[in-house]
Design brief:
The complex is a heterodimer.
Chain A (H helix, E strand, L loop, with lengths): L1 E5 L2 E2 L2 E2 L2 H11 L3 E8 L10 E6 H4 L4 H15 L3 E5 L4 H12 L2 E6 L1 E3 L2 E6 L4 E7 L4 E5 L15 E4 L9 E6 L13 E5 L9 H10 L3 E4 L1 H5 L20 E5 L5 H7 L4 E6 L12 E4 L2 H13 L2
Helix pairs in contact in A: 3-4, 5-8
Chain B lengths: L1 E6 L1 E3 L21 E3 L1 H17 L3 E8 L3 H11 L3 E6 L8 H12 L6 E5 L10 H9 L3 E11 L2 E7 L5 E7 L2 E5 L11 H8 L2 E6 L10 E7 L8 E4 L2 H15 L5
Parallel strand pairs in B: 1-4, 1-6, 4-5, 5-11, 6-10, 7-10
Antiparallel strand pairs in B: 2-3, 7-8, 8-9
Helix pairs in contact in B: 2-5, 3-4
The chains are: A alpha/beta, B alpha/beta.
Bound molecules: flavin-adenine dinucleotide.
Flavin-adenine dinucleotide sits at the interface of chains A and B.
């Protein structure tokens, strides 16, 4: 089995997701080569062939051109599997590649079971084994599903690559997340509100519990998208990553993008009306209750301790 | 200006799922259905563009059994002009490549200036269909957008990246964009608009007229994951539950000390 790993690079730096790809190849006992549109100044610590195109010339985001660079390498390497991270770079580029190659494409793979990729369905409540009908396959890996046990090491054999493909879109630069607001990563206790709070008025009961416990309040994305809470309080892949001593998730289903931001918390309590909510997978305690009743009652008990 | 928005009907994620008798998808009885969340943003953005353009025609397309027309009526009530229903009871067996090829086949001679899709569906989550449609039609595409502006054929969008950083990307129409949560605030259809929507065109065509390719993969087996977490699950009277949680927090953490 031979894999081609599509490494990621942003704002002048190699992204750590690159090493999840390396871990994946090791995990399934596959040979690998790597593809990167990056730079000589931030090479991956990796023993193997690295096909490198320069971002100075090809830009950090340029799908049509990155696609051609990658297709040229695939033609040369003939990998059985082309492996991406399931990330904003990976899910954008991968379908362009699978279509050009005319091969199966499985997204957000969490595991390979007897050679068969496994992917989540319905917010991870279900899983499916996906049977590819083509010999070659493109996959994207769920963030955090694979990881190196040791620090990455090695140095690649660099092969410079070029193309004269033309761009379809123009990348004009980055806009940083708004600065300011709270720094949730410093809080020891976080009580977070999810869509289950139902309406903005119910945020007060979440804040009150956070206060009673001497902590901060956070939120899941829908609560932030609705402008009920400032973005600095959003926990998850597109918000903050936190690891407090206690994390209380109120009315949060436990989507992978939320879990990625809080699953390293020392102790996790979830309050949810749905006993099967995926948050139960990471929670030390799942309280099956209506948060509108449970949260105020809990606050009162704590205040009376 | 001609605009297309592609939407999917999905079950409420809080549903109690059951595996179907073939073991290859979830049972679709006893479920509450709704518009895929990502697609609500796509519909809203398409309607906003139509309003901005003034002279525009907006088609909403969905593939699925008869029940998806209910959701399409919501999109019509939000402001889409006409509906194209591609009837298929076996849609769940189609892979993203087949679904995209059906949409591309529908769209190929219609010269849409802009196509909107959600960035992914809530049930399958592959996130492939939008990009595949664009590639099949030879159009530029921008995925995961949280901001969209259109000015004289020029599109300026912001793609959301990990950590909340955004990439500013420009392209020119015709093009396709895939919409991320939070792109806008989807409107609620008003009663007069719901009434008006009833008179809008909503045509069904069988998928066999548009499907010309074979899938490249299939779901061999659908199942519930093994529970690994194995945390404590507490149910019952709220008063008892608060007492139990306080005891647990005292025993297992230092937060109440
Ligand atoms: C690229 C990308 C990035 C993302 N980044 C993030 C991110 O950084 N952070 C993030 O949070 N999400 C993120 N998301 C969104 C994520 O996929 C989910 O949509 C989101 O986390 C869902 O939020 P939620 O759990 O609050 O809402 P839902 O999934 O709607 O869950 C609501 C929960 O509340 C429960 N509930 C309802 N009523 C009550 C009640 N009265 N009492 C108790 N419980 C109740 C329900 O049972 C349900 O489990 C991202 C998605 C994508 C595609």
């Amino acid at each position: 089995m031979k894999t081609l790993l599509v490494a990621e690079y942003r704002d002048g730096e190699l992204l750590n997701s690159t090493y999840e790809l390396v871990a994946f190849a090791q995990d399934i006992g596959a040979e690998s080569a790597m593809f990167l549109v990056g730079s000589e100044s931030a090479l991956p610590q990796y023993d193997g062939t690295l096909y490198l195109a320069d971002t100075g010339k090809y830009s950090e985001f340029n799908p049509a051109v990155h696609k051609q660079l990658l297709l040229d390498v695939i033609a040369k390497e003939q990998p059985d599997m082309v492996v991406f991270a399931h990330s904003s770079y990976g899910w954008d580029l991968a379908p362009r590649i699978s279509l050009a190659l005319n091969v199966a494409h499985v997204s957000e793979v969490v595991e390979i079971k007897d050679g068969v990729p496994v992917a989540p369905v319905c917010n991870a409540k279900l899983r499916r084994d996906v049977k590819a009908k083509t010999a070659q396959m493109v996959i994207t890996l769920q963030g955090g599903a694979f990881g190196l046990e040791d620090e990455p090491s090695g140095s690649p054999t660099v092969v410079q690559i070029d193309t004269d493909a033309t761009a379809q879109v123009e990348f004009c630069g980055y806009e940083e997340a708004e600065a300011g607001g709270v720094d949730l990563s410093k809080a020891d206790i976080i009580v977070s509100a999810g869509r289950g709070i139902g309406k903005p008025e119910n945020l007060a009961i979440i804040e009150a519990l956070a206060k009673a416990l001497g902590g901060e309040y956070g939120a899941s994305r829908p609560v932030v998208d609705s402008d009920w809470v400032d973005h600095s309080r959003q926990v998850g892949t597109t918000g903050q990553t936190v690891s407090p001593k206690l994390y209380v998730a109120c009315g949060i289903s436990g989507a992978i993008q939320h879990l990625a931001g809080m699953k390293k918390s020392e102790f996790i309590v979830a309050i949810n009306t749905d006993k099967d909510a995926p948050i139960g997978e990471v929670a030390d305690v799942l309280i099956v209750a209506d948060l509108k009743e449970f949260v105020p009652a809990m606050t009162e008990k704590i205040n009376n301790l | 200006m001609k605009i297309l928005v592609c939407i999917k009907q999905v079950p409420d994620m809080e549903s109690k799922f059951k595996v179907n008798s073939e073991g290859n998808w979830y049972n679709d009885t006893d479920l509450a259905w709704r518009m895929n969340e990502y697609d609500e943003y796509a519909v809203e953005q398409a309607v906003q563009l139509k309003e901005q353009a003034g002279d525009a025609d907006l088609t909403v397309l969905s593939i699925g059994p008869d029940r998806v027309k209910e959701m399409m009526k919501k999109a019509l009530a939000m402001g889409c002009d006409r509906g194209a229903h591609i009837a298929d009871d076996d849609f769940f067996k189609k892979d993203p490549y087949e679904i995209a090829s059906v949409i591309a086949e529908y769209a190929k001679d219609k010269e849409f200036d802009l196509i909107f899709t959600g960035m992914q569906s809530q049930d399958r989550g592959s996130g492939q269909v939008g990009v595949l449609v664009a590639e099949m039609l030879g159009l530029p595409s921008i995925t995961t957008i949280v901001d969209f502006a259109f000015d004289g054929g020029q599109i300026t969008a912001k793609r959301e990246l990990e950590g909340g950083i955004k990439a500013i990307v420009k392209t020119t129409a015709p093009a396709l964009v895939t919409c991320q949560l939070g792109l806008n605030t989807p409107r609620y259809p008003t009663l007069p608009n719901i009434m008006k929507a009833k008179r809008k065109e909503l045509l069904s065509v069988p998928i066999s007229e548009l499907l010309k390719v074979e899938g490249k993969q299939e779901t061999a087996k659908l199942y519930f994951p093994e529970k690994k977490g194995g945390g404590l699950v507490l149910e019952g009277d709220v008063g008892d539950l608060t007492d139990q949680l306080i005891k647990i927090l005292k025993d297992k953490t230092a937060v109440l000390a």
